Amino acid sequence: MGDVKIGGRPVCDHHWGLPDGHVVCRELGFAKAKKVFEKSKFGTGNTNYIIRDAYCNGTEKRLLDCGQKAPKKTCPGGRAAGVQCYTMDYFNILNNSCYEGDVAYNLGKSNADIQNIDSANACQKLCQDCTTCNYFTYQLTSKTCSLLSGKKETVARDTVSGPKSCKNPSASPVRACNSAGVVCLLQGGSPDEGNVYVGGRPVSQVTWDVQNARVVCRELGYVDVLEIYRSSHFGKVAGPEMIKYSCYGTETSLTHCSSSIGRYSDYEGAGVKCHNNTAALLPQACHAPNKICLWGGAGDHEGNVYFQGKPICDDGWNSANAHIVCTSLGFQEALQATTGSEFGMVPYDFSDIDFDCHGDEEHLKNCIFSE
């Protein structure tokens, strides 16, 4: 992963989205994009941009094959586009419901660690040949296969875990996406994400918000919404006729919401990432009264902040709040306060508690703000 450059010149992040990232990753020999970044995430300071608007639909072979536009007006410094790519092995894993990505089992308690294993599938086969192995964890970067007895889960990037053998899941019923009233997520990298379509017609980004997205996700059987998207995030949609919805968030179906049909650009489609019960699965202990947990980081010293089992919104989040979180957990001080779900997506079910720390409180619970 990194900032995207062509011939040493960066690409501006104006209108930068997942379709553009897919093209870059496939051009580099990877499966597709996992995540795209803006604002020179990886430190590029060069302002000699080669592309301002890539305008890819996600199917092109090269970034330069997209309907890209040269910078007509200045793209400021610190606005380079970036991308993180899926490896082919990791992409195949995501399409296998038996495996879990970015999760390690029984960290530090393996029965055996075997080096130079080529894939997660090969690691699973080694587990099948071992009588004491019930689960495995495969590290993508080091190609290490750990054979395990238990499956206590820990978030660990670039790892894959799974059971000794996968049961063949029954095929999920195919949704009749072109039938009236049927909601589908299309063009995404997994079933729980994509641009939103109803009856084969795309949903417009106009009035698109978390209430509308929540209805979509729950109608499709997911727990809740993780992220909402606009600007046809998962690729150009089949406009120009689209449906505009306005939901309260309590409806059982998107078709129960107020709606109207209008004509919009192909890049004005609404999208969503739904909570599929694999993102941010907190230990039960994190739901205890006044309990603080850091989740999603590389260790227990960093992560998105949860209070009593719910993520804390980053509105007003500052170094004083972060400092009290760290001291509450027994650390000396905070190195950095992060925002924007730095350590991975979190559910939209945020804590309704506001915090306003001065930096000398004994515990985060002493920072609860009340008007």
Helix content percent band? 10-25%
Task: Report low-confidence residues grouped into runs of 5 or more.
Answer: 169-173
The Cα radius of gyration reads 22 Å
Q: Hey, roughly how much beta strand do the residues contain?
A: 25-35%
Q: How are helices and strands ordered from N to C? A: EEEHEEHEEHEEEEEEHEEEEEEEH
Strand order of the largest sheet: 6-10-8-9-7
Q: What summary fits the major beta sheet?
A: 5 strands, antiparallel
* Straight-line N-to-C gap: 44 Å
Describe the structure.
The structure is a single chain. This protein has 371 residues and is of the alpha+beta class. The chain is 12% helix and 26% strand. The protein is built from five helices and 20 strands. The strands form six sheets. It has a five-stranded antiparallel sheet. Strands 11, 12, 13, 14 and 17 form a five-stranded antiparallel sheet that branches. It is globular.
Q: How do you describe this structure in short?
A:
The protein is of the alpha+beta class and 371 residues long. Helix content is 12%, strand content 26%.
Q: Which terms summarize this structure?
A:
371 residues, alpha+beta, five-stranded antiparallel sheet, 12% helix
List the helices and strands and how they pair.
Elements: E1 2-3, E2 5-6, E3 9-10, H1 18-27, E4 32-37, E5 82-86, H2 88-94, E6 100-105, E7 112-114, H3 120-128, E8 135-139, E9 144-148, E10 153-163, E11 183-187, E12 193-198, E13 201-202, H4 210-219, E14 224-229, E15 241-246, E16 258-263, E17 271-275, E18 292-296, E19 303-307, E20 310-311, H5 319-328
